[in-house]
Amino acid sequence: GAVVSQHPSRVICKSGTSVKIECRSLDFQATTMFWYRQFPKQSLMLMATSNEGSKATYEQGVEKDKFLINHASLTLSTLTVTSAHPEDSSFYICSARPVGGATNYGYTFGSGTRLTVV
Amino acid sequence: GDSVTQMEGPVTLSEEAFLTINCTYTATGYPSLFWYVQYPGEGLQLLLKATKADDKGSNKGFEATYRKETTSFHLEKGSVQVSDSAVYFCALRGNSGGYQKVTFGIGTKLQVIP
Question: Would you give the DSSP letter of residue B94?
Fold first, then answer.
């Protein structure tokens, strides 16, 4: 089945530094990848949608200069949290839509990245 | 816009009890409906899905029926196990083109005690 690998699973960084999170589709090509953020005891909030070779589309309220998304190939999307602050600490999770994926199938999710900014 | 309303937990049940987690939605057209499960410390896994009215999704003893007349997709299981302890998310994805983003409910934490 379709597998999405997300790396790292956990990261602790100092305030002011940048952190890159990778999302890879292992056995399929992903036209579109989605990045979500999950606050404690809350649901997943869509941050942005990325399409291979084009600029990401950000949801309202998400700072695109802070959360840089690059979807350079059909199997890799990256999210970079720039100049991280403690309030950026959260669980980040990606999902991928296969090329030509049928509209009636769920997207495949990565296992998530727990970011802690100290 | 699309929205999903899900009962807030936590829900605590004894092993072998019957489970119902309510979910209702608001969407235009005919969305696809999903239940995802998140085990402690892990990402989301698709549990089951339904793509049109009256479809029943089922997996691992869990079931949910797409009820368009009541815009609901309640999750049920006849006999829960300790291993079912997790957070369950109801979700929908519109079928009206575009990026077809997934909208999630708030998630319901289920705790099953022996």
Answer: -
Instruction: Number of helices (H) and strands (E) in chain A: give both, helices first.
Output: 0, 11
Of B69, B75, B100, B89, nearest to B2 by C-alpha is: B100
Model confidence pLDDT, tens digit, residues B26-72: 998 889 999 999 888 777 888 999 999 999 999 999 999 999 999 99
- The more confident residue out of A98 and B38 is B38
What are the structure tokens assigned to A3, written together?
A: 């597998």
- B101 with A111: Cβ contact below 8 A: no
Is A110 in Cβ contact with B43 (below 8 Å)? Answer: yes
Residues B75, B7: Cα–Cα separation, whole Å: 11
Is residue A7 less than 8 Å (CB to CB) from chain B?
Answer: no
Instruction: Give strand ranges (E) for B11-101.
Output: 11-14, 19-21, 23-26, 32-38, 44-50, 56-59, 62-65, 75-77, 86-93
Per CB-CB distance under 8 Å, the chain B contacts of A49 are 99, 101
Please check whether residue B25 is in contact with residue B34, taking contact to mean a CB–CB distance below 8 angstroms: no
Using a CB-CB cut-off of 8 Å, the residues of chain A touching B32 are 103-106
Question: Does the beta carbon of A97 lie under 8 angstroms from any beta carbon of chain B?
Answer: yes
Q: Please tell me which residue of chain B has the smallest CA distance to A51.
A: B99
Q: Do A43 and B106 touch (CB under 8 A)?
A: yes
